Amino acid sequence: GVQLVESGGGSVETGGSLRLSCAASGYTSSNFCMGWVRQAPGKEHEGIATINSAGWVSYADSVEGRFTISKDSAKNSLYLQMNNLKAEDTAMYYCAAGCTAAGGYKFWGQGTQVTVSS
Length: 118
Fold this sequence. Notes:
The protein is an all-beta fold. The protein has strands at residues 3-7, 10-13, 18-25, 34-39, 45-51, 57-59, 67-72, 77-82, 91-99, 105-108, 112-117. A hairpin with a 5-residue loop joins strand 5 and strand 6 (57-59).
């Protein structure tokens, strides 16, 4: 089956940077729409970045200009470069694949925690 494994989370101070990685297996990432979703404590899941099979990207307003999504099809990997991190970026970050018509994803990773302290 499809497996998504995130890495790169951690603790950082406000204004710092982190790069999340997602190693995918069980399918070819170049054929899939993929993205990053986060969930802060007590809040709903928030889709923050998406990249489709053609390389078209979109971002939530909350991260536009600070985060960059990219993928390496040769490595079957997805990345999220996060710059100028803010306390409100603290959340569990999930790699997801297989965009649905309802705006969700078919496949999810187990998540990696990002904590931003001021």
